[in-house]
Design goal:
single chain; 98 residues; mainly alpha
């Protein structure tokens, strides 16, 4: 696992990921979506601490999101934003779009 410090542009991109996650979580207020909301929050809960970590590894963000998407993205009813695609955009120096 390669460790590095994030650039300001990468931090801004990861903040965009959190922004979109909060928007998505807002829409998961029904009881039948509570479990999914909990899993999305769990997948991203370490991200604020990682933003300014001395040693950042992308797998610490991608791994939990990969697991989350593998659980909920088979069904159109529970599929949300493609967070792994957003992370790839950040890593490629592109603007984040869901």
């Amino acid at each position: 696992m390669d460790s590095q410090r994030l650039t300001d542009q990468e931090r801004r991109g990861l903040c965009e990921v959190l922004y979109h996650a909060f928007i998505e979580l807002r829409g998961m207020g029904s009881p039948e979506r509570a479990h999914q909301a909990s899993k999305l929050a769990y997948a991203l809960h370490n991200l604020p601490h990682l933003l300014f970590a001395e040693e950042f590894a992308w797998e610490k963000v991608e791994g939990p999101l990969r697991f989350y998407q593998s659980q909920f993205y088979e069904s159109e009813a529970t599929r949300g934003y493609d967070y792994l695609r957003m992370i790839a955009q950040i890593r490629n120096g592109e603007a984040v779009s869901p």
